[in-house]
Automatic annotation (TrEMBL):
Catalyzes the synthesis of activated sulfate. Its EC number is 2.7.1.25. Belongs to the APS kinase family. Keywords: ATP-binding, Kinase, Nucleotide-binding, Phosphoprotein, Transferase. It holds the Pfam family APS_kinase. It catalyses: adenosine 5'-phosphosulfate + ATP = 3'-phosphoadenylyl sulfate + ADP + H(+). It comes from the Bacteria. It is an enzyme of class 2 (transferase). This is Adenylyl-sulfate kinase. ATP binds at residues 37-44. The active site is at residue 111.
Amino acid sequence: MSEQNKSPNAVWQEVSVTRANREKLHGHRSLLVWFTGLSGSGKSTLVHATEQALHARGRRTYALDGDNVRHGLCADLGFSDNDRTENIRRIGEVANLFVDSGAIVLAAFISPFRADRQKARNLVDPGDFIEVFCDCSLEICEQRDVKGLYKKARRGEIKDFTGISSPYEAPIDPEVSLNTGELSVAECVERIMAVVEARTQLTGD
Ligand SMILES: Nc1ncnc2c1ncn2[C@@H]1O[C@H](COP(=O)(O)OS(=O)(=O)O)[C@@H](OP(=O)(O)O)[C@H]1O
Ligand SMILES: Nc1ncnc2c1ncn2[C@@H]1O[C@H](COP(=O)(O)OP(=O)(O)O)[C@@H](O)[C@H]1O
């Protein structure tokens, strides 16, 4: 039991319907596709386009998106390093539950720290975590300024803004790396789908 466990008397309940049972019912394996990158790098766009492509093929999916999660599950958290770490910890746990439910989970979070992404990866079985690096220069993200946040950050109205006043640690060996400043959304989705489809094939009976 981990030292972090604050509920030593909580007993793990064995289940009668397993992830494998659910995967068989769905006709595909479940896993976690984790999109990371600067604000404006294309995480949300690609999560939603990929989810549509999967849904169109009859796959069970669930998308977790930074802005939405921060309205509920993580509404108490801000953007300090510690809060970002706690944000990613909670999302990793929730994503793992959705993987257990048999879904292909698509998570879109800046998740700027390598160690936090690694912890999320460690929660799922080896091979069931696909890190998708939305690799886009700060210059292009700032030009896009989809939500007007970069302008605010430059004016000093938002502190700890990723890429400007808070760090972003790029993945070292992601399963998928996409230059979202040059590739089209369709090209990116095609590359993601190739990896997801290969890894979610059911093998054997
Ligand atoms: N200080 C600061 N830095 C970065 N981003 C900020 C900040 N304040 C608000 N926002 C908005 O919050 C979205 C990022 O939330 P995340 O949960 O993905 O962040 S993190 O993973 O905990 O770093 C991010 O969404 P995306 O633009 O989709 O990345 C922003 O809309
Ligand atoms: N290859 C691409 N992948 C994703 N987004 C792209 C791409 N090319 C251009 N874009 C545009 O970049 C913007 C990315 O915004 P968004 O998906 O909200 O980023 P994030 O979720 O990382 O903050 C959108 O306006 C999108 O249309």
